[in-house]
Automatic annotation (TrEMBL):
Annotated protein name in UniProt: HTH cro/C1-type domain-containing protein
Matches recorded under PROSITE patterns: HTH_CROC1
Annotated Pfam families: HTH_3 (PF01381)
InterPro entries per UniProt: Cro/C1-type_HTH, Lambda_DNA-bd_dom_sf
Organism field: Streptomyces crystallinus
Domain HTH cro/C1-type per the UniProt entry, residue ranges: 35-75
Length: 142
């Protein structure tokens, strides 16, 4: 990792931290400590990153991503550790991976926790919302 990659990542994450309401500019603001506490990481890891001394390890990155509401994938790519080619997104259709087989209404009922004695009613009602009668047994892709 080059110094410029660390600088770019640190600048991006500083902005993100500020936008999430952590006061990291004031010595008494406590933003670094609060961020570290909420993420369950050492304050020193946050400080080293913000001072552009080192990149956080994978677990710290994962925890910071969670607290900052950023996908871990984005953190890893922006950090320069991995590329978009290393972490490709699956092809999606309606928010569901394309490679999955169709989900039946019965499977949907089970997945949603519909009690067995109410599944027939669920299937009948949900089937009315499907675009054609031939598709009544399935709900798009999983």
């Amino acid at each position: 990792m080059t110094t410029s990659e660390l600088d770019r990542f640190a600048a991006w994450i500083e902005d993100l931290i500020r936008r999430r309401g952590f006061d990291i500019d004031s010595p008494r603001g406590g933003g670094r400590s609060r961020l570290a506490d909420e993420a369950g990481v050492h304050r020193a890891a946050v400080t080293r990153l913000l001072q552009r001394q080192s990149m956080p390890d994978l677990e710290t990155t994962r925890r910071l991503a969670h607290v900052l509401s950023v996908p871990v994938r984005e953190m890893l790519i922006r950090s320069g550790r991995l590329t978009e080619e290393d972490l490709p997104l699956p092809a999606l259709r309606a928010g569901v991976p394309v490679s999955s087989p169709p989900l039946t209404l019965e499977e949907a009922a089970v997945g949603l926790g519909v009690p067995p004695e109410q599944r027939a009613m669920f299937i009948k009602v949900a089937g009315q919302f499907l675009p054609d009668a031939g598709a009544r047994g399935s709900v798009g892709s999983r």
